[in-house]
Amino acid sequence: MTDREEQPRVVIRDKRRIDPVTGEVRAPAGPQPAGATPDPNSEPGEQMSEHETPVVEQSADAPDLGQQLAERTEDLQRVTAEYANYRRRVDRDRSLVVDQAAERFAAQLFPIVDDIERARDHGDLDGAFKVVADRVLGLLDGLGVTAFGQAGDPFDPALHEAVIHDTSSEVSVPTATTVLRQGFRRGDRVLRSAMVAVTDPEAPAPAEPAAQPSGESAAPTSD
Length: 223
What we know:
four-stranded mixed β-sheet; 2 helices; 9 strands
C-alpha cells in the first residue's frame, strides 16, 4: 500500500435511453458502485465526461413555454387596464366630491353676500364691516365662484329668474332692467340664478314674410 491512498473516481453515467450517436435504444443498466472501473464492453456514449451536463427530455404533456408567456402577458395587460380604469374612476369621484363640497360651502355664503351688497348700496360698507365683507368675497373668489346679473343684460331664462314684467319702447329685446338679487356660478355651473325685473318691448317687430320661390308670381286677386 502506497503512502498516498488512491482517491476513488467519480463516474457520471449517461442515462439517456436513446443513444445520441447511433439513435438506438439502450438497454437499461443497473447502478454501479462508486469507484468501480468502467466496463470496457459498454456501448459508446454510455459514459459521460465529468463536465458534461445530462439532457433532460421534456415531457409531451408539459405546456408550451410560448403559450405560457402569451397567457401571462395577456393577464398582465388586463390587470393594467383594470387598474387604469380604477384610477380614473377614483380621480373622477374625488373631483366630484371636492366640487360638491365647495358648492355647498359657497351656497352658505350667498345670504351674507346679499347683506353685503345691500349695505354697499346704502353706503354702510365701511370700517371693520368692510374688512369682513372683503374676506367673505375673497372666500368666494378662492372657490372659483363669480357673481353675475347686472341691469341692462339681455334676459336669459337659464341665468335669470323674472319676478317683475313691464314693457317699454326703449328696449328691443327682453331685458333685465333691475337686478333684485345677484346670481352666482362656478365655471359653467349656475349655483343660483339672478332675480331680476324684465322689461319687454312694447311693439314686437313683425315677422318677416316668407320669401316666395323664384319663378312664381303672386296669385291674381279677383275683382
